[in-house]
Amino acid sequence: MKLSKFKYKLPTELIATHPAYNRDESRLLVLDRESGKIEHKVFKDVLDYFDNKDVMVFNNTKVFPARLYGNKEKTGAQIEVFLLRELNREQRLWDVLVDPARKIRIGNKLYFGDDDSMVAEVIDNTTSRGRTLRFLYDGPYDEFKQALYNLGETPLPKLIGREVEAEDADRYQTIYAKHEGAVAAPTAGLHFSRELMKRLEIKGIDFAEVTLHVGLGNFRTVDVEDLTKHKMDSEQIWIEDKAVEVVNNAKKNKQRICAVGTTVMRTLESSVSTTGLLKPYEGWTNKFIFPPYDFQVANSMVSNLHTPLSTLMMMVSAFGGYDAVMEAYDIAIKEEYRFGTYGDAMLII
């Protein structure tokens, strides 16, 4: 499968800049894999496609305020610092991306906050854009973390093309977010409201939770035509016994198992036994799913409508079938669905 197969023309006006007024009232394009039939619904209609003892699997990662703006010592040049992951708690070491990267060298100091109350020193170059920073902070760890997060802002993807607003702190987070560590939201989950979750529960749908801390690798451009040559960034995942039990019971009873989002699908497919059952796991995954691919666990999925040439779109087309998904995207554009992080959703059954 070649990269160029995932190129399509997406009008920029269809990229959503704000979420729907109510979480569960985005539009929903429903694709039946067997028949190729397409339906146009509202997201809360997802309820109609699941029955008692079916399972929905959610990614309960929580986004932290990962984007900071600092000033370089001496020159005062503004530098954007994107916190990727904490490397060492005691030494206050963080793996970060900096922009513009060419202005930052090992040994440079960066100052944050109106009063320069937070200082960081560059101690390593990890990639062309990446650096390792040591934050020079003497207080207790909890105090440091709070101070750091107070300086940060919600890390909206640049594609949204606007400044962060007050509502983003809440809306760029799923209602079931628990475990902090993501620098991007698992966007399919943003459509679930408390009311919808309650109605699913009343209908008898079982929930399972896994954790994948979403990294920026999802947004990294694929720069090889031969997709087998592309390497995904590793992301940390947890699959606990409780989720394994819920999913495997549903699988044995031939129930519908729905992966809510590409991050859930990647997590499930990263820990499967030879008999196709889910296994507990704690570690890292760099699994890259593109067509053709034989899915082992989930038999339905919810996803947003993704941008051209993205690894997310590749996974969706592997699950829904390349031709069917490309046709669905074509229809979504004609029908003026909203694409991207804050856009509309797609259910593949």
Helix content: 10-25%
Task: Using the CA coordinates, give the radius of gyration.
Answer: 21 Å
Look at the helices and sheets and give the structural class. Answer: alpha/beta
In total, how many domains does the architecture comprise? 2
Strand order of the largest sheet: 2-1-17-16-14-3-12-13-15
- Low-confidence residue ranges: none
* Average pLDDT, all residues: 94
Give the CATH superfamily of the largest domain.
QueA-like
CATH class of the largest domain: Alpha Beta
Number of helices: 7
Please indicate the percent range of residues in DSSP E strands (runs of 2 or more).
Answer: 25-35%
Determine the N-to-C terminus distance: 23 Å
Largest sheet: 9 strands, mixed
CATH topology of the largest domain: QueA-like
Structure, briefly:
This protein is an alpha/beta fold. Helices cover 19% and strands 27% of the residues. It has helices spanning 141-151, 168-171, 194-202, 241-252, 262-269, 311-320, 322-334; strands at 27-31, 38-42, 55-59, 61-63, 67-72, 78-88, 93-99, 109-112, 118-125, 130-135, 179-182, 206-212, 235-239, 257-260, 281-285, 300-304, 345-348.
What this model shows, in words?
The structure is a single chain. The protein has 349 residues and is α/β, with parallel strands linked by helices. The protein has two domains: 3-63 and 168-348, QueA-like (3-Layer(aba) Sandwich); 67-152, Thrombin, subunit H (Beta Barrel). It contains seven helices and 17 strands. The strands form three sheets. The chain has a nine-stranded mixed β-sheet. Strand 9 (118-125) and strand 10 form a beta hairpin. Helix 6 (311-320) packs across helix 7. The chain is globular and about 65 Å long.
